[in-house]
Amino acid sequence: MNTRVTSEKPRHSWRRLPQGFWWTLPSIVVLIALSIYPMIYSVRLAFGDLGNFTRLISDRTFGIATVQTIVLTAVALAAEFVLGLALALLVDSLSRAKSIFRAGLLVPMLLPPVVAAVAWRLIYNPQFGVLNGTLRQLGVNTSALTWTNGHNSALLSVIVVDIWEWTPFLFLLLSAGLQAIPPDPIEAARIDGAGPWRLFRDVTLPLLKPTILLALLLRAMDLVRIFDQIFILTQGGPGTATETVSLYIYRTAFRFSNFGYAAAMSFVLLAATMLFSRGLMRVMRAR
Amino acid sequence: MKTALRYIAASIALLAALAPVYWLITISLKREVDQFAYPPQWIGFAATLEHYRDAFSNASFGTYFGNSVLLAALSTLAALAAGVPAAYGLSRFEWARSWDLKIGDWILSTRMLPPIVTIVPLFLMLRQAHLLNSLIGLAIVYTGFNLPFVVWMMRGFFDEVPREVEEAAMLDGETRGGALLRIVLPLVKPGLAATAVFCLVVAWNEFLFALILTQTDSAMTLPVGIASRVTQYEIKWGAMSAAGVVAMLPVLVFASAAQKYLVRGLSLGAVKG
Amino acid sequence: MPLELTSITKRFGSREAVSGVSLTAGDGEFIVLLGPSGCGKSTLLRMIAGLEAPDSGSIRLAGRDITQVEARDRDIAMVFQSYALYPHMTIAQNIGYPLRVRKQPAAQIAEEVRKVAARLGLSALLDNRPRQLSGGERQRVALARAIIRRPKAFLMDEPLSNLDARLRVEMRAELKHLQHELRTVTVYVTHDQAEAMTLAHRIAVMRDGKIQQYDTPSCVYHQPANTFVAQFVGSPSMNLVEKSGEILGIRPEDVELSLVDQPGWSPARVYVTEEMGNETIVVLSDGSAQLTARAPAGFRAESDTPVWFRFRPEKLHRFDAASKIRK
After folding, report:
1. pLDDT at C244
2. How much is the pTM?
């Protein structure tokens, strides 16, 4: 494409860089300044004092935050996937008003997370929230239903909010995947005598697999770093009931100004993300 | 019968998706006495706009709103200015030893860094540069955040323009820049618009960076402003809900405008929905 | 010479796509680069256009060395296989674009567009967009865009291969006449030997980045330089038989057939016959090898019928067994 890579005259070696390089240079500079340099900075902060890492192992709160982040990620991801796939199949099978359902179901995901969390505070509040209000109307004794304020129910309540907010994401991606499946294999399987279940298991699901993987990985990466909703809903409480790694890092750095320790913890999070992102890149390349 | 069941199931899902949003809207419109009345009032309450007036004239939500608009616009423009040429370079030129793929992967991987990992150093860097509590500082951070996204989305759109069209233009007498400006960019205009919309929405919705990098009233964004009210001891639910409704409206409008590209944008261009 | 290529070489990585190609074209000459896909013909064309740079060698056009000149400054027009029309412009804007880039006055552009469109039968379509046009119409628009600025050379990269068979033959005739009128040197790339035979003043048959033979269609057909050219040009292909240290070639129309034994003729059986309407293609089998012959339309024989054949001796081509080169 470049008409001028070779020349009769010898040129400075930098002129021999691929022409496309100059087009990408501004982006590369910006990204080095805003991701690579901070990363190096972070490494210096964290590894400047190896005590940061020994402390990590004995820190009970960090342990709790890690376990809770894993639980939250696993439960929310599983629920969002099952619901998202079911909704995608359901809406795909409708003959009318498809676009209305589709557009309406996407709303939760589009809201600013802060706004979504505020709406759920209005719902969850044990005294005046609409959830307990409605339950009382139905004759349920709500005195024990404290939702985000309860030690045992807080994490689950937070998970429910995440499911509400992000099932639409799985729904959207899986819907697109379903629509992209060519009709021929499905018709061929039908002629070969496959019933609806077999059709789903033998044709639809395998053809949908790349999209499923992609959606799960994207979602998992976001879940392990969950922050906004929990910050608004519970601030990690009550006690440490909804403490997550992101939240704990935030508190360590910006409440207690212990930047080195926060940086050390963030590398644990980074390792988890890298695991997912490697898989993700592989899936994206394969497409 | 089976069809009816399907519609009922879909309607329940739709209701579950929209009810919390609807409830937020009703709170923003109710007089304070009605907000938490028992039984809950879903319809037929006396509506008032006093909370909107309260939020945007008395409280500082007006300033926050302006900050958010400015910030989204600035960071989107900057990300496009740096990212579109990069996408074009990766899409259109020959790179030895598939360096284009390597650079592309690297750019994408920066997007996957959890924000909390870079936020500590960014906070310290901006503090050194005296850019804390400034919209410029936050705009720079958002630019870095949106840039990989712009590169990936736009590269996909450029890839869809046949090379031959551009080559024809160059044989017709255009320079490469001229062909890009007059032939290629008009062809990717819808994609460019969709990419811009996504950047705007990301910057508009972002919370963590804004929370840490802007603490003063004059630099706060709308999400941070709302959050700062929630964590106060006494919460003005009406004003806060009103601010929330105002914060979500532009996003919903933009998202419906870019609906065709929603899937593509949310999957970093991996699913061409 | 208007167009002169001297020892052009182009490598992609370690693969040589074009190696040491030299070629000249005279005033108003129609040159066809013919070869199978991957033979380097398109790469060669793109180097003439300035879309690729050769690793070595030089290109001269109308007395000027253009090897290092940017595509846009070469004054060459090209018609692409996909037509490469500008989808966001009307047909009139598409055709007039080369003039607009050259900043000609709008009135003059409009006038030129009108003339060219009339000549190619596009007058009624000027306000449409490319996607509203049929394949044949798009093809004409691409041609119109190429001829409007009277360039020093035309390059065409398989311009007819996206058209259906009937239209292709029609456009072929039109193209040939147009080139005759304009008398502009034209380089045309195709893998279709019939197109090459009908259009070219001279054909350059290419294989593996090298020119195998560069000659008039008649010479390429009647005196193929090697077995590759012999088999690539002509349909059905020339029969090749290895015999006593050399390769004998005979075109199907030079194989005589008989249903009765004649002195000096060889026996075989009919493998299959293909009736074409105006003639019948007969594939023979003598047990070890197959042979294709052309018979008159009336020739009828079931498969496995015994037949006798002979080669017209004056039409026999001889090639060296080792080098495959014509003796």
Report:
1. 83
2. 0.85
* C92 vs B59 pLDDT, higher one: C92
The total of other beta-carbon atoms located within 10 Å of residue C246's CB is 13
By CB neighbour count within 10 A (0-12 exposed, 13-18 middle, 19+ buried), where does A183 fall? Answer: exposed
> A56-114: per-residue pLDDT in tens?
889 999 999 999 999 999 999 999 999 999 999 999 888 888 889 999 999 999 999 99
Q: Is residue A34 part of a domain?
A: no
pLDDT at B273: 57
Element (H, E) at B102: helix B99-111
Share of chain A above pLDDT 70, in %: 94
Check residue A1 and give its pLDDT: 39
Question: Is residue A43 domain-resident?
Answer: no
According to DSSP, residue C279 is labeled E
**Cβ-defined contact of A38 to B125 (cutoff 8 Å):** yes
Architecture of the domain spanning C3-228 = 3-Layer(aba) Sandwich (3.40)
- Tokens encoding C233: 């040009």
In chain C the first and final C-alpha atoms are separated, in Å, by 31
Number of structural domains (chain A) is 1
Q: Which helix (H) or strand (E) holds B154?
A: helix B135-160
Which one of C52, C56, C58, C72 makes the best mutation probe of the A interface by having the most chain A beta carbons within 10 Å?
Answer: C52
What per-residue string of b and e applies to C143-157 under the rule 16 or more CB within 10 Å gives b?
bbbbbbbebbbbbbb
d(CA B223, CA C308): 93
- Helix B189-205 and helix B237-257, axial crossing angle in degrees, nearest 10: 160
Residue A243 falls inside a structural domain? yes
Cis amide linkage into residue B39, ω under 30° from 0? yes
pLDDT at position C66 is 93
User: A-chain residues within 8 Å CB-CB of C53?
Assistant: 2-6
Q: Is any Cβ of chain A less than 8 angstroms from the Cβ of B212?
A: yes
A2 shares contact with chain C (CB less than 8 Å) = yes
Q: What is the dihedral of CA B259, B263, B268, B271, to 10 degrees?
A: -140
Q: What DSSP element (H or E) covers C243?
A: strand C239-243
Tokens 């292709």 belong to C168
Domain of A186, CATH number, reads 1.10.3720.10
Report yes or no on A16 lying in a domain.
no
Domains of chain C by residue range: 3-228, 237-320
Structure tokens at A272: 């988890």
Laid out side by side, the sheet with C15-25 consists of C15-25, C3-12, C56-61, C64-65
Bridge partners of residue C65, in order along the sequence: C60
Tens digit of pLDDT for each residue in C256-306? 999 999 998 999 999 999 998 899 999 999 878 899 999 998 888 889 999
Task: Residue A84: give the domain boundaries.
Answer: 74-286
Q: b/e per residue, B209-233, with b = 16+ CB within 10 A?
A: bbbbbbeeeebbbbbbbbbbbbeee
pLDDT tens per residue, range C222-244: 999 999 999 999 989 999 988 88
C237-320: CATH topology: OB fold (Dihydrolipoamide Acetyltransferase, E2P) (2.40.50)
- What strands, in cross-sheet order, belong to the sheet with C246-250? C239-243, C246-250, C317-320
CA atoms within 13 A on the CB side of A165: 25
Chain A contact for C51 (CB, 8 A cutoff): yes
pLDDT at residue B59, rounded to an integer: 76
Which residues on chain B are in Cβ contact (under 8 Å) with C145?
Answer: 168, 172
> Hey, what domains does chain B have and what are their CATH numbers?
60-266 (1.10.3720.10)
Best mutation site among B98, B172, B174 for testing chain C: the one with the most C CBs within 10 Å?
A: B172
Using CA atoms, how far apart are residues C50 and C44, in angstroms rounded to an integer?
Answer: 10
- Cα distances (angstroms) measured from residue A38 to each of B126, B141, B142, C30, C60: 11, 11, 14, 62, 54
Q: Name the residue among B114, B194, B155 with its Cα closest to residue A222.
A: B114
